[in-house]
Design brief:
Number of strands: 8
Number of helices: 21
Strand content: 5-15%
Shape: globular
Largest sheet: 6 strands, antiparallel
Radius of gyration: 28 Å
Order of helices and strands: HHHHEEEEEHHHHHHHHHEEEHHHHHHHH
Strand order of the largest sheet: 5-4-1-6-7-8
Distance between the termini: 46 Å
Structural class: alpha+beta
Oligomer: single chain
């Protein structure tokens, strides 16, 4: 079990560290994106609008731009609990598909809720935002999605195996949780690894298993293949059965009062709880208007409440049949993985648990080298150990610096630059790759300290760069009470201080060991003479 635990963790440790770092950032996807789009206005108090009047304005516009459409959708202005941001007034539609085509042409427009005209204004800069970081934790980058899913899936399975074998290996797991002996070299690294691992073990098990459930149809395709076949259309038939597939007829403007439908929904849910209005006509069934509630308030995030009304009579229609228990269970597992239902305090708890996950992997990787360094140094060194040490330094210290560089690129790259979002990601991987080269050819002790200082400076100076390049800095966001933008800058300062502390701590340990080795070398002739 100890052997299995060690090698399961080592062979995929660097990929898993990358997955944990980018996945942890994903818990603040929308906050990161908002900071990376400084052209957007500051966040103020949510305004109130007459949703019934806005729906009539949207219907007028839809009749002009999409008189024959497969569906009409109206997004009313609201505060999204899921995206943790204000959602603007907009419309969207899809035209009826032409003969021989499966889908029509999709279109959308943003409308001004005051004038009803097309909304104009400064568009935010092109950026990958927090969404790109989030996608990296399961789709990696630069490679095909299906290949990336399988790589991450294999690494996730090995991590699950490493955690189970780790629990079996540590017989005194609860005692180890309360034991930490600093300054003891290998013993200290093992204590740190044990404490961090036990501290958030339920979270690690949940996040690992639920990550596998996300892509169940990719990792376990045999069940689908047995029922639906293995041809190119097999997965399409499976998902049509799972989610329901209907052909549609062209929609017409409802003759019943849509404002009355919205009012009925607001009476049931409360003011500000209506998210959208959709008009649709499934073939062979009665046309309907669906009023959907703001999502994100439940553990089953995708199970948004909705009321359906007949488009002509305005009569409330019976709800659709509920999902099967298996699908409900899967949705709960996915919601637990993403934490999209979480209030701010719980989201920060998710974030801290993710940081502990990165710490668990990092301490395990360092422990492997610490246990073997002395024996390999006695025999003149070993290329494998040197490579692992370089990968450790580059990933544990260099990758966070690369993530900070991703934010720097957002502020420093020209706004009009072609493929700007791609170059933000390129900067992240360039810094990470350069850190690997630097760590491999530089003395390991110096590389640790210098790259940790690089990460500290990269994070601590981000708010300064923000002051010099935008008007959405701490001097503006704190007085305005915009704690999303202010919180990002303050978090960057906190991360900078954390990496500075690690740099000082590592430097002190290396200096102490250097002095001890020098003293032992000087005393060796005397000891041999006596």
């Amino acid at each position: 079990m100890a052997w299995l635990h060690t090698w399961c963790g080592l062979v995929v440790g660097w990929v898993l560290f990358f997955v944990f770092v980018t996945g942890t950032a994903g818990y603040f996807t929308y906050e990161i994106t908002r900071w990376m789009e400084p052209e957007r206005p500051l966040q103020g108090a949510a305004p109130r609008y007459d949703n019934g009047a806005l729906a009539l304005v949207a219907m007028d516009r839809l009749q002009q731009v999409a008189p024959s459409a497969e569906f009409w959708s109206i997004t009313l202005p609201h505060q999204s609990l899921a995206n943790r941001q204000w959602v603007d007034f907009s419309i969207s539609w899809e035209t009826m598909p032409l003969e021989g085509h499966e889908h029509g042409v999709w279109g959308s427009e943003r409308l001004d809720p005051v004038s009803g005209n097309l909304r104009t204004g400064i568009e935010p800069r092109e950026t990958g935002g927090g969404s790109l970081l989030y996608r990296m934790h399961y789709a990696l980058h630069y490679i095909d999605y299906q290949i990336a899913y399988r790589i991450v899936g294999a690494c996730t399975m090995l991590m699950l195996l490493a955690m189970v074998t780790g629990v079996i290996t540590h017989k005194k797991i609860f005692k180890d949780f309360f034991t930490f002996r600093p300054g003891k070299g290998q013993r200290s690294w093992l204590d740190a690894h044990n404490v961090i691992s036990v501290m958030a073990l339920p979270f690690f098990l949940m996040i690992t298993y639920s990550g596998l459930v996300f892509f169940y149809s990719t990792y376990m395709p045999a069940g689908i293949a047995a029922i639906y076949g293995t041809d190119d259309q097999a997965r399409g038939r499976y998902f049509d059965d799972l989610f329901g597939h209907h052909s549609h007829e062209a929609v017409t403007r409802p003759s019943a009062s849509v404002p009355a439908m919205i009012a009925q929904a607001e009476n049931a849910w409360g003011e500000g709880q209506v998210r959208s209005v959709m008009v649709m006509h499934d073939s062979g069934e009665e046309p309907f208007v669906e009023i959907a509630r703001v999502q994100g308030s439940k553990l089953r995030f995708f199970d948004g409440e909705a009321l359906r009304f007949h488009v002509h009579s305005g009569e409330l229609l019976p709800p659709e049949p509920g999902d099967a228990a298996v699908r409900k269970t899967q949705e709960v597992i996915l919601a637990l993985h993403e934490g999209r239902f979480a209030e701010p305090w719980l989201r920060w708890l998710y974030f801290l648990a993710g940081v502990l996950g990165a710490g668990m992997i990092g301490t395990g990787l360092v422990l492997w080298t610490v246990k073997r360094r002395r024996s390999h140094e006695a025999t003149g060194g070993h290329f494998g150990l040197r490579l692992v040490e370089a990968l450790n330094v580059a990933t544990i210290a260099g990758l966070p610096a690369g993530v900070a560089a991703y934010f720097w690129a957002n502020r420093l790259l020209p706004v009009e630059m072609a493929e700007r979002a791609n170059w933000e990601a390129n900067v992240l991987f360039l810094i990470w790759g350069e850190a690997l080269l630097y760590a491999f050819f530089r003395d390991t002790r110096k590389a640790w300290v210098e790259l940790l200082w690089l990460a500290a400076a990269a994070y601590a100076l981000l708010p300064v760069v923000n002051v010099l390049t935008t008007d959405k800095h701490l001097g503006v966001t704190v007085p305005a009470g915009d704690w999303v933008l202010a919180g990002f800058d303050l978090t960057m300062l906190g991360l900078g201080l954390a990496f500075a502390y690690m740099a000082l701590k590592v430097r002190r340990v290396w200096l102490k060991k250097t002095i001890q080795v020098s003293g032992a070398t000087r005393n060796r002739p005397l000891a041999e003479a006596t």
